[in-house]
Automatic annotation (TrEMBL):
It comes from Gonium pectorale (Green alga). GO terms for biological process: fructose 6-phosphate metabolic process; protein N-linked glycosylation; UDP-N-acetylglucosamine metabolic process. The lineage of its organism: Eukaryota, Viridiplantae, Chlorophyta, core chlorophytes, Chlorophyceae. One of its GO terms (molecular function) is glutamine-fructose-6-phosphate transaminase (isomerizing) activity. Its EC number is 2.6.1.16. The keyword Transferase applies. Keywords: Aminotransferase, Glutamine amidotransferase, Repeat, Transferase. This is glutamine--fructose-6-phosphate transaminase (isomerizing). It catalyses: D-fructose 6-phosphate + L-glutamine = D-glucosamine 6-phosphate + L-glutamate. Residues 52-196, 223-361 form the SIS domain.
């Protein structure tokens, strides 16, 4: 059952190239248009959304509702959804959504993300939004689950069973599913065509990039040895990688879709997780907030992971690195493979963790 892996979580981490392919299978057409054949354009077709696509496009706002890792997936995919649909996208932690009795309108679209499709707070939020007349979509990995049955329509991740309690492959498939949804909703927009086609091209390369990133697994053991006695860890990210920082802090197994790194940190146990399994205190911090509090914590004893991939946030993350170094921070920098700009920091005592592939900007 575990196919040679030590535990299910490790197996599921390594299944990601395949689970991502499965999420796209039969739904993404990658071909570039053949000359004279306008029908072979790159496009996404999620069968579950065809009927309700027009309603979503006309809605007042899209609300993404979830818990835990599924919430982090919402955060990671929000920018693409906003960019493609040009509709405000709100994020809601299901428990808080319910506690506040968040105002919901008939022209809202609420999207409920859940690997299991059974999480109580997410399910209660769905009942609440449905009772207030919103269009309710599900994005779940479990066919026949309560959320899959109760939503008006939705998307199954098709990532395969996730048995490990720590969610891994479902996270990357959730980000992918919301991205695919965004691409489908924008399919009639001429102004978005080039951007849409380039994202679809990148999606075609995604399983391969994840596969090569997973090859860092062995190299991470050394790093884990270094971190095994840390009392606390901080993760700084910004843009797409704010979600990566939060998810890395929750579980620093393999980080995110958007150009982030795969790191099998193994500090105090044989499982590659930090807060959730290794029980080390860790926090994910939006790098833009660094000056408004977290900087006061920084000294040479606190290991900090900075995610500085080649995307629109690169320059800002460089400035974060410089400010942290001015406080003698012990830095681990997640950056793109062969990033010459980041090499200079090695001579200042930083460790580089280099992920393969180009990042979305
Ligand atoms: C569906 C079939 C798939 C088949 C394909 C071929 C199922 C489960 N999927 O996949 O086996 O190969 O057609 O055309 O039979 N839904 C919700 N809420 C959710 C998730 C899904 O209401 O949270 C609904 C969708 O709106 C849709 C149905 O469930 O009506 C199936 O969803 P999905 O499996 O994502 O659809 P397809 O990819 O088209
Ligand atoms: O099944 P769901 O996605 O609804 O579960 C929500 C959270 O409980 C879940 O993502 C949790 O945070 C993960 N197991 C953490 O790895």
């Amino acid at each position: 059952m575990k196919g040679g892996y030590d535990h299910f979580m490790q197996k599921e981490i390594h299944e990601q190239p395949e689970s991502l392919l499965q999420t796209m299978r039969g739904r993404v057409q990658f071909q570039r248009p053949a000359v004279g054949n306008p029908y072979l354009t790159p496009r996404v077709k999620l069968g579950g959304l065809v009927e309700h696509g027009a309603t979503v496009r006309r809605c007042r706002r899209i609300m993404l509702v979830a818990c835990g890792t599924s919430f982090h997936a919402c955060l990671a995919a929000r920018k693409t959804l906003e960019e493609m649909c040009e509709v405000p996208v709100m994020l809601e932690l299901a428990s808080d959504f319910l506690d506040r009795r968040c105002p919901i309108f008939r022209d809202d679209t609420c999207v409920f993300l859940s690997q299991s499709g059974e999480t109580a707070d997410t399910l209660r939020s769905l009942e609440y939004a449905k009772a207030h007349g919103a269009l309710c979509l599900g994005i779940t990995n479990t066919v026949g689950s309560a959320i899959s049955r109760m939503t008006h329509c939705g998307v199954h991740l098709n990532a395969g069973y996730e048995i490990g309690v720590a969610s891994t492959k479902a996270y990357t498939s959730q980000i992918l599913a919301v991205t695919m949804m965004a691409l489908q909703l924008a399919e009639d927009s001429i102004s978005k065509r080039d951007r849409r086609d380039s994202i679809i091209d990148e999606l075609g390369q995604l399983p391969g990039k994840v596969r090569s990133t997973l090859m860092l697994d062995g190299a991470m053991k050394e790093l884990a040895e270094e971190l095994r006695n840390a009392h606390s860890l901080l993760f700084f990210g910004r843009g797409y990688n704010y979600a990566t920082a939060l998810e890395a802090a929750l579980k620093a197994g393999y980080w995110g879709l958007h150009g982030a790194c795969g790191a099998g940190l193994r500090p105090r146990c044989s499982l590659p997780t930090i807060k959730e399994v290794a029980l080390i205190h860790s926090e994910g911090i939006l790098a833009g907030e660094m000056k408004h509090g977290p900087l006061a914590l920084v000294d040479e004893h606190l290991p900090i992971v900075v995610i500085a991939t080649r995307d629109g946030m690169y320059k800002k993350m460089e400035s974060v690195i410089q400010q942290l170094l001015a406080r003698n921070a012990q830095l681990y920098i997640v950056c793109n493979e062969n990033d010459e700009g980041m090499k200079q920091y090695e001579s200042r005592g930083c460790k580089l963790i280099q992920a393969s592939g180009k990042s979305l900007s």
